[in-house]
Write a structure and sequence with these properties.
Distance between the termini: 43 Å
Strand content: 25-35%
Oligomer: single chain
Helix content: 10-25%
Number of domains: 1
Order of helices and strands: EEEEEH
Number of strands: 5
Mean pLDDT: 93
CATH class: Mainly Beta
Largest sheet: 5 strands, antiparallel
CATH architecture: Roll
Shape: elongated
Structural class: alpha+beta
C-alpha cells in the first residue's frame, strides 16, 4: 500500500534536512518542493516527508522575513 501524495500547495518537512517546503508538483516517484518564500525547487522521495506543524511554518516564514529585511533575498 502506497502513502498518499500531499496536495499541491501544502507545507511539508523534508526529514533528511529539516527544510520546510511547499509542494509544487509530483514528477514520477518524487515530490517537488520549493522553499518558503520561493527559491530553487528540489525533488524529494515521498517516504521522507511529513506535514509541517504550525510552529514549523511560522519558523520558516520568520526566517524568510528576517532574511528579506537584511537584503539577503528580494
Amino acid at each position: 500500500m502506497s502513502t498518499p501524495k500531499p496536495s499541491i500547495g501544502s507545507y511539508v518537512v523534508d526529514t533528511r534536512t529539516g527544510r520546510v517546503g511547499v509542494v509544487m508538483g509530483h514528477e514520477g516517484p518524487y515530490i517537488q518542493l520549493r522553499p518558503f518564500g520561493g527559491g530553487r525547487e528540489w525533488d524529494c522521495p515521498p517516504g521522507v516527508i511529513r506535514a509541517a506543524s504550525g510552529a514549523e511554518r511560522l519558523r520558516a516564514a520568520t526566517a524568510y522575513q528576517n532574511a528579506r529585511s537584511r537584503g539577503e533575498v528580494p
